[in-house]
Amino acid sequence: xxxxxxxxxxxxxxxxxxxxxxxxxxVLAPASVQDVVHPAGWTDxxxxxxxxxxxxxxxxxxxxxxxxxGADYRGGIxxxxxxxxxxxxxxxxxxxTCHGSLNNAAPPPDLSGNTSTTDPGVGAHQSxxxxxSYLSSVACSSCHVVPQAAGPGIHPFGTQSALVAFSxxxxxxxxxxxxxxxxxxxxxxxPQPMFNQQTLECSNTYCxxxxxNGNNYTPTWNKTTSGQxxxxxxHGIPPNTPIHRGQTMQTCYLCHEPMIGPNGVIQDSSxxxxxxxxxxxxxxxxx
Length: 287
Known about the structure:
By secondary structure, this protein is mainly α. The chain has helices at residues 2-19, 21-26, 51-57, 63-69, 125-129, 253-256, and strands spanning 194-196, 201-203, 277-279, 282-284. 18% of the residues are buried. Mean pLDDT is 84; it is low at 1-35.
């Protein structure tokens, strides 16, 4: 009886490994030189055999992973869940599996492991997504098409740069006819944002002054320490209009509190660069 059980177990083990034959052929070192399903360095970030490196080299195709670990990556025929290490809600398909950190999915690091803001893949991601003293946060969808899945031809678009497609607050229209503060002597401002992949410059965005009485400033994506978001870059201090003449940073609060305080410092960043005119304690969506 014991002999029969051993034979059955041997057949079962053989079936399990034959089921992973596709993975063996595409991912693993030859079976003759290894005793385990994955190479020794499969989970070692510093190894040339690290699975993240392999997946990146193969255009983030996780089909071979799913063939053994299951379509949900929770075990499949291997019985080993990818969620053991990939603890995010979407497991290995979480955005910060490939870029970003536990804090948020925006670089650093980028897909190449770069962490400096001077690297185009990193740039000003954190100052936009995490927010700062000037604004609370910018949604990823304001600058990117947010992908719903990863894989060849889907995301991250092979070796191409990230797909920049502006929407939301970046395209906010101002000086709209019929609005309370419409000025017929000025054109209606409808931003047409653009990103130059060669110069790394953003232009014509509401966020940087393409609005009524704004400066329409053109910032450079990877120059985050040059004061590109300082007061006075996107609009004048004060704006060059009759109603603002004689005003200073210290008097802005008279009309724009609670967004800005008597000391000339923004005290509620959620009310700044939000697509609205903060005036007399009200948030005007159309102006």
